[in-house]
Write a structure and sequence with these properties.
alpha/beta, six-stranded mixed beta sheet, five-stranded mixed beta sheet, 12 helices, 13 strands, MYG1_exonuclease
Length: 368
């Protein structure tokens, strides 16, 4: 009993403290085994199946996520390819050749499977993506401690898919990130799918038993699951508050300047993704050209030109060419604005000692 309690406490410590305690308990008590006859307990424990043998990120993450739901909390993971065994299980992921959510069957390998997440996404789903599509809202609502119908749940649901889940679906389905026939400029084996893959038993390992394989799969579940939970928590505790700040600042933009093309961040936060999304949602025209914010370290003010898109360096309206590369008195003399500190050579950012000074820089830049 003392040994079991020690193991429980170690597992509980490794998981994040701020996730729901019921989630911690079910993950800490996770069980993965190869199929064998007989029930381990008298209690009606749900059983979730996936294939044995080499594993990938999608089924490891899918098994982790499905156990965060009410329906499959504390479920046992059964790893087998035996169709007769799979038929007896409560849910089956990544094996079995069936996608039928009414029966909790979530395979994606069968001919004719073309299921996507929807909501503007077109990447074919893996088993992880299928579990997320059907249970992600429930998992997120539990983290936020709100009802599934709360608008913040859907916002996180789609953005976590974009920033975390879609890559796992694409990699598992062999979808290239770029539409090009050229080979990649470098090899990237640091992504989650690659790291999960390396947890498979090495061909040089002397012990290739089912027990060792299942232990490795448990590690894969924990690795993929911990990063998924980190993503959920980041969106809940950082992404969502930042979105609210940017929305409020956008709504007040004409109080800053009648053009509506300058906004001031009342508190510095990650703003880029939110700005593009909110401009579209709020139908803002003309689009914002400059963001003003205070540098927390120096207490000076910054004016940053908004890029034409999230993945581009080119600015919608860079700071004027005559200012670029100038500093301090030379820049103040060129602009006619006191307190100037610098303008970057590319014109994407500049600085001033005061809010009034940086606002004057932005306003003048709009006219040039």
């Amino acid at each position: 009993m003392l040994g079991l309690m020690k193991l429980f406490n170690q597992n509980l410590f490794l998981l994040r403290k701020n996730f729901a305690s019921s989630f911690l308990l079910m993950v800490a008590n996770s069980r993965v085994r190869a199929f064998s006859a007989g029930s381990p307990t008298n209690a009606p424990i749900k059983r979730v199946g996936t294939h044995n043998g080499s594993f990938h990120c999608d089924e490891a993450l899918g098994c982790f996520m499905i156990r965060l739901t009410d329906k499959f909390s504390v479920a046992e993971i059964v790893r087998t390819r035996d169709p007769q065994v799979l038929e007896t299980l409560d849910a089956v992921l990544d094996v079995g050749g069936v996608y039928d959510p009414s029966r909790d069957r979530y395979d994606h390998h069968q001919k004719g499977f073309e299921e996507v997440f929807g909501h503007g996404f077109s990447t074919k789903l893996s088993s992880a993506g299928l579990v997320y599509k059907h249970f992600g809202m429930e998992i997120i609502a539990k983290e936020l401690q709100v009802d599934e119908g709360h608008p913040d749940v859907f916002r996180l649901f789609t953005n976590i898919y974009r920033s975390f889940m879609e890559a796992i679906d694409a990699i598992d389905n062999g979808i290239n990130q770029y539409d090009t026939e050229q080979p990649p400029r470098y090899v990237n084996n640091t992504h989650l799918s690659a790291r999960v893959g390396r947890l498979n038993l090495d061909w040089m390992d002397a012990d290739q038993s089912a027990e060792k394989e299942n232990e490795a799969f448990q590690r894969a579940m924990n690795l993929a699951g911990s990063e998924f939970l980190d993503s959920v928590r980041f969106h809940a505790k950082s992404w969502l508050p930042a979105r609210s700040i940017v929305m409020d600042c956008l709504s007040a933009r004409k109080d800053v300047d009648p053009s509506g093309e300058i906004i001031v961040l009342t508190r510095f936060c990650p703003w880029k993704l939110h700005l593009y999304e909110l401009e579209e949602e709020m139908k803002i025209d003309p689009p914002v050209k400059y963001i003003l914010y205070q540098d927390d370290r120096s207490k000076h003010w910054r004016v940053q030109a908004v890029a034409i898109s999230l993945d581009k360096f080119e600015s919608r309206k860079p700071l004027p060419s005559p200012w670029r590369g100038l500093r301090d008195e030379g820049l103040s003399s060129e602009t006619g604005i006191p307190g100037c500190i610098f303008v970057h050579m590319s014109g994407f950012i500049g600085g001033n000692q005061t809010y009034d000074g940086v606002l004057a820089m932005a306003r003048q830049a709009l006219k040039l």
